[in-house]
Design a protein that fits this description.
Blueprint lengths: L6 H25 L16 H17 L4 H18 L1 H18 L21 H23 L1
Helix pairs in contact: 1-2, 1-5, 2-3, 2-5, 3-4
């Protein structure tokens, strides 16, 4: 038995991969832009953080029950991850946007080779991004459960 036979690991991993690949696909469909590097970046639609922890939490409930320690631990960790993605990391992204604007506005004060590099701004998630990611995770847990039962 390998670790990928574990439904908690498998559904979490597949939900994360599906969410990350969806980011590239959505950009291609909505903006006609091919940006494959989005697969490895944080932030954006859908939230792979939410997809991953929702799959873990749902799989633990399906495998061990709602009264289990596995479910309780995954639920608490999942809520912390989602709170962090919509709160702290989202605020950090907004701060990065403001700092980038300030550097641009005051660029004339920097020597050409001493100008700070732009900060990454796509860090956190909006509530719709978290909602869609959570849906992906829950669905993936049920899909993996169904396929492993077959």
């Amino acid at each position: 038995m390998t670790v990928l036979n574990n439904p908690l690991v498998l559904s979490s991993f597949l939900a994360m991969v599906f969410a990350q690949v969806s980011k590239v696909t959505l950009l291609l469909l909505t903006e006609r832009r091919w940006v494959p590097e989005r697969v490895t970046e944080t932030g954006g639609m859908p939230s792979s953080h939410s997809a991953t922890v929702a799959a873990l939490c749902t799989s633990s409930a399906l495998s061990h029950g709602f009264e289990s320690s596995a479910f309780a631990i995954s639920l608490v960790i999942g809520l912390i991850v989602i709170y962090d993605a919509t709160g702290v990391r989202r605020a950090a992204g907004r701060h990065a946007e403001i700092l980038n604007e300030l550097v641009e506005e005051f660029s004339h004060l920097f020597e050409e080779d001493r100008r700070p590099a732009a900060l990454k701004t796509l860090l956190g998630h909006s509530y719709p991004q978290v909602f869609v990611g959570t849906g992906i995770g829950i669905a993936m847990a049920f899909i993996v459960r169904y396929l492993q039962a077959s």
